[in-house]
Amino acid sequence: MQKNALYILLADDDEDDRLFFKDAFEEIKIQTKVDFVHDGMQLMEHLMDPNAKLPDILFLDLNMPKKTGKECLIEIKKTEHLKNIIIAIYSTSSSEEDIEDTFIQGANIYIKKPSDFNTLKKIINEVVTVNWHYHTSGLNRDNFLLRLK
Amino acid sequence: MKWIPNFNSSNSLRVIFVIAVFILLFLSSIAYKHNKDLDESSKVVMHTYEINIQLERLMSAIKDAETGQRGYIITRNARFLTPYIYSRDKVNTSFITLKKLTTDNPKQQKNLEKLFKLIIQRFVSFENCLKYSDPKTYDKRKLDNHMFGGRILMENIRFQVDEMNDIEKNYLAKRLKIYAAEISLSPLFSISLFLVALLFILLAYRQISRDFERLKIYNKKLLISSGLMAESESIGKFSTWQWDLDSDKIDYSDNQYRLLGYEPNAFVPVKETFLEFVHPDDKEKVAKSMENIVEKKQLPFVYYKITRPDYEIRYFKSTGKLLTDQQGSKILLGINFDITDEHLLNIELQERNRELEKSNKELASFNHVASHDLQEPLRKIQTFVSRISEADKAVLSESAKAYISKIEVSAKRMRVLIDDLLLFSRTNTTKKEFIKLSLNELLENAESELAEIIEEKKAVITVSKLPKLAVIPYQIEQLFINLIGNSLKYSQPDTVPEIKIESEKVNSADYPDLLEPNVKKFHKITFTDNGMGFDPQFKETIFVLFQRLHSKTDYPGTGIGLAICKKIVDNHKGHIIADSTPNKGSVFTVFLPE
């Protein structure tokens, strides 16, 4: 494992989705380390562990057992040492309500899970390579939902 | 608030009566004085006549003495001397009486003294006459002298008596004159005063009878209005009660008794009576509000139950107000409404509301299932299919390749169906914020959304000036997208699609079958195209969900687009209609209220 590899964490209860995600990262050939947690509870335990390394980008599914993505988001943003983690919502839902809520709660980007593997690769590439400091400073409602051209 | 009609005349009546009473008092005091004066004058007359009589008696006594003496002298018979002897006593008696009568008059007293002296002299002369006529001491000359002197003395006495009588008569005349003067002034005066008093009393009588008439009219009116009040109370299922705080007297209206399950006036209400009817659950609340009303002078509506004597429970709504009438006494006015029917209806409505809420919740969870749970396996099917690489496909048989592509097409169609269905349900469930916007602006957004297909079909869209309206922006934008998209989709293959969008203001009265008359003006926006059109017999069914006029192989679609249009227009309390001539074009008309 390289020292400057990006550390990516995906919280998703769906085994297939974790598989797609892992394969996509393997194919885009960017130095990354990808870890998985299976539900919201596990995610929070992982993040609160003082020995754990904090992820550079957290991909967060909304519909998870035990603790939903939205609950995790609120908790993370309330916790001092976690609130600067870049959070990408990664959900099947594209309802206005979910997008609005997570935007208000301080998520950085909203990704609707694509139904095409190549699109998934493109999205991951986009998210990983974007200059987050730049992106966050100009954060607004219009570019919150990731749309690929 | 006007409680009692104002009778201003009561004050003037009082003044009239006071004046009349004073006049009558004055008149009676005058009459009393007259009586007194008359009494006085008659006393004076009596006094004068008494003096006169006594003087005459005195005179006659002396004359009797004289006559007796004469008879004696002539006959020398002692019997003639009897009146002479008695006359002295008579004279003395009269004298004493006269002295008493004239005590208040010094002049008459003097005269009386003079008279007394003369009478004594006369009696001395009598003695002398008797002495000189006696044959023993007879002296003719001396007798003559004394007889003559007696004659003169007698005249003097007569003169003196006459003078005294004259003085009394003058005095009487003077007094009578004074009284006559006093009385002569009064009859006219007292008659006029009497007439004035009479006039006042008549005036008062007229005023009283007039007030009486007015009272009668007011009374009649009051009777009518209280009758109407009682009637409206029983029709409107409400009742009133009054509580006079000063006298602590409580009055229930007839309907109050009926609402409590009794005949009118079946009992005499006191302060605690009403609370006895209130259901135990609400007793405390009602008692508290009754106390509050005295402090706050007004009572907000209080809702509670009462129990009738037959144990029937009725629902009441009450209010009240503290009133102060013209006399300054405080009256608490209360109104009770029997709202049992409304209450039961309300409960039924609440029940229905709960059911609606429940089914709405179910609908929402269905939405969630559709948006999330149904999409998930579909997305995975699509993703897995997309993961079959070209290298994998190369080793597959032709038919297997064809199946895979069929799976792709079916999955895609299912995705469109789910997305459109969600869009349709969201037009109803998402929040509806109305913002005043120019429709031209929204139309431009719709055009830029459709830019690709417009470009592709080289369509010509002409837009006239559209109104500025309070709308839900994204929905109207969706409406425009769907209508223009529809025209572009069903354009004629060999002609350049032309879409004309126009707007005008119309009166709802001109479209009585379509528009509600309570909104006077509508904006009529028409979308006219030169597309392939449709059979006008379907002009209503095309707005129904999943209704399609073409096979999905010729024109892919879900049959939701126009249903969404209808829903959006409904959300804006408007109407949408369609008409068409096949192969010539269609017209979609949207009516939006001003």
From TrEMBL, chain A:
Ranges where the Response regulatory domain occurs: 7-128
SMART domains in the cross-refs: REC
Organism (species): Flavobacterium azizsancarii
Keyword DNA repair: no
Residues with PTM 4-aspartylphosphate: 61
CDD domains: REC_Rcp-like
Keyword Phosphoprotein: yes
Entry protein name: Response regulator
Keyword entries, A-Z: Phosphoprotein
Automatic annotation (TrEMBL), chain B:
Domain PAS as annotated: residue spans: 244-297
TM helices/strands, residue ranges: 12-32, 179-205
Start and end residues of each Histidine kinase domain: 369-594
Presence of keyword Phosphoprotein: yes
Coiled-coil stretches: 436-463
Reactions it catalyzes: ATP + protein L-histidine = ADP + protein N-phospho-L-histidine
Keywords: Coiled coil, Kinase, Membrane, Phosphoprotein, Transferase, Transmembrane, Transmembrane helix
EC number: 2.7.13.3
Protein's name in the database: histidine kinase
Species assigned in the record: Flavobacterium azizsancarii
